């Protein structure tokens, strides 16, 4: 699922998007679709070749299927990134790691020209990559998602500072 289009901001000005309604999930949907489609196609082709070759033993056929499963597993792992934002913070799921952040921990959302994905500047001085928002094959979508996440972070950090 992707993030809904941002709603107009409190000022109602067309160029000033406000934060999306929570909870919201950001994913690189085109990249994910390509990776999973290629993974399933590779699995089918490699498995079909392994089963079609008559001179292979049962063990060799199983190694074809295992290799196809391994390729599919790697591509599925690469399609895993997402960011889930809710009222209390965000959960960043990258390829092998998951990290929960409170809104107050996020100082800035960055997507500079040439960046492969969004980076979150955190209050502990570190930076966290968010592979869920990447401009690779869907640049306009990634920019829209980065702006929506930035609007959420700005509004939530401001609200947290007023408590």
Describe this structure in words.
There is one protein chain. The chain has 163 residues and is an alpha+beta fold. It is 42% helix and 19% strand. The strands form two sheets. Strands 1-2-3-4 form a four-stranded antiparallel β-sheet, covered by helices on one side. Strand 3 (89-93) and strand 4 (98-102) form a beta hairpin. The longest helix has 24 residues, at 29-52. Residues 1-14 have low confidence and may be disordered.
How are the SSEs ordered, and which strands pair?
Layout: E1 24-26, H1 29-52, H2 58-78, E2 82-85, E3 89-93, E4 98-102, E5 106-110, E6 118-122, E7 127-130, H3 139-162
Antiparallel strand pairs: 1-2, 2-3, 3-4, 5-6, 6-7
Helix pairs in contact: 1-2
Number of helices: 3
Q: Could you give the order of strands across the largest sheet?
A: 1-2-3-4
For the biggest sheet, the summary is: 4 strands, antiparallel
State mean pLDDT (0 to 100 scale). 88
The global form is elongated
Write a concise keyword list for the protein shown above.
163 residues, alpha+beta, four-stranded antiparallel β-sheet, three-stranded antiparallel β-sheet, 42% helix
Outline of the structure:
This protein is α+β, with helices and mostly antiparallel strands and 163 residues long. It contains 3 helices and 7 strands; from the N terminus they run βααββββββα. The strands form 2 sheets. A 4-stranded antiparallel beta sheet has the order 1-2-3-4, covered by helices on one side.
């Amino acid at each position: 699922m992707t993030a809904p289009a941002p709603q107009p901001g409190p000022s109602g000005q067309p160029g000033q998007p406000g934060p999306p309604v929570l909870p919201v999930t950001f994913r690189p949907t085109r990249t994910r679709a390509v990776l999973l489609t290629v993974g399933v196609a590779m699995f089918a082709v490699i498995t079909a070749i392994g089963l079609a070759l008559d001179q292979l033993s049962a063990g060799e056929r199983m190694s074809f299927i295992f290799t196809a499963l391994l390729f599919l597993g790697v591509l599925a792992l690469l399609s895993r990134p997402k960011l889930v934002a809710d009222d209390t913070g965000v959960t960043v799921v990258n390829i092998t790691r998951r990290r929960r952040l409170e809104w107050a921990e996020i100082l800035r959302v960055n997507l500079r020209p040439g960046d492969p994905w969004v980076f979150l500047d955190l209050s502990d001085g570190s930076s966290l990559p968010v592979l869920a928002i990447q401009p690779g094959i869907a640049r306009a979508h990634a920019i829209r998602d980065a702006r929506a996440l930035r609007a959420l972070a700005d509004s939530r950090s401001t609200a947290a500072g007023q408590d």
